[in-house]
Amino acid sequence: MATLQGEFPRKLSALRGLLDFLGSTLEEHAVDQASIFWTQLAAEEIFTNMVRHNRSTGNRIALHLEVSADAVTTQLTDYGAEAFDPNSVPAVDPTLTAAERTPGGLGVFIVRSKMDEVDYRHDNGNMTVTMTKYRPIS
Amino acid sequence: MTDTFQASWPSDDVVSLSGRFDASQAATAEAVLARAESSITVDFSKLVYISSAGIGTLLAAHKRLQERGCSLKLVNLNDHIRELFELAGFDMVFEIE
After folding, report:
1. Which of A18, A37, A133 to mutate to test the interface with B (most CBs of B within 10 A)?
2. pLDDT for A37-67, tens place per residue?
3. Of the options 3.40.50.1110, 3.10.620.30, 3.40.50.720, 3.30.565.10, the CATH number for the domain spanning A2-134
4. Around Cβ A135, how many Cβ atoms within 10 Å?
5. Does B68 touch chain A (CB under 8 A)?
6. Which residue has the higher pLDDT, A83 or B56?
7. In this predicted model, what pLDDT tens digit does every residue of A93-104 receive, in sequence order?
8. Who's near A121: CB < 8 A, 6+ residues apart?
9. Which of A92, A89, A80 is nearest to A127 (CA)?
10. Are the C-beta atoms of residues A46 and A8 closer than 8 Å to each other?
11. Which of A44, B11, B27, B77 has its CA 20 to 30 A from that of B53?
């Protein structure tokens, strides 16, 4: 099991560094390309939500990454954040037409759909989202 | 490796997207797509990644063109991006080849 940690500035321009870090680290550990794609995507969606919805602090956002033979676990922690209830986000209706659609809620929908385990936890004023993607059996 | 995002017009009715289209690139793509005044094809052949923010940008351009009686078609999606569009039913919203 490999464990890596990092901190990223609370701004969208930090996404490049976050996604580069995830991509290069997971490639070094021979993680399959599909798991890398969905892990990067889920991390971006959660990171972006943290940047957009918590404007009360300039704290950096922490990343904790664990890579094992079976799974990739990505944890993002937003220090000094209000609790976020993902169940408050309306589900995406895949049958809607273009005119009926708005981009809202799509990120949470993607995370729910493509991660095998997702945990939202609010402790001591910090919001932590932990997402696990199982690696395919080789 | 940094997959730098780029959006360009290789011909009058084709927009080419390349690299990684994350949320920080939405304004760049919006500016390029805003030049579309008739039906366009968006070529994904060099695009390796897109997030919900990118899909939202394309959706806004698609709606704007539809209101003018025009269309926006997506071509050459890689397998992961195609799966993402299918996941939320965007394969039924956009014309995809």
Report:
1. A37
2. 999 999 999 999 999 888 777 889 999 999 9
3. 3.30.565.10
4. 19
5. no
6. B56
7. 888 888 888 777
8. A127, A128, A129, A130
9. A80
10. no
11. B11
